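Each letter names a residue; structure tokens follow underneath. Both lines appear below:
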Amino acid sequence: MRDHDGTDPETGKEAVKEYWEGAADLPDTRLPAKDRALLVARAEAFATPEIRRRFNALSACYPLVIARGQAPTLKIKAGLAVEALRTQVRAEISVSEETNR
């Protein structure tokens, strides 16, 4: 029997189970709490709004739990977000260096 969206209910249940098992790693511990707070404070104090926007777009590409089949798409989005952030940082650094001459 299929659900209204055409998926097999058993397969769907299995995907949900895998998702929540992965969520057991929460909260985000990729950085120690003190370092994470310091990074956020520095970004808020010194980054331009455009850098903050692009950094947040990059952060959105890395959810704590990745659903089945989502990884390739996230990898592409993350690559594009890294390049956009890198380009913006380089542009702002070059403007800053020209201003300081």
User: Anything to note?
Assistant: The chain has four helices and no strands. Residues 26 and 77 are 23 Å apart (CA to CA). The radius of gyration is 19 Å.
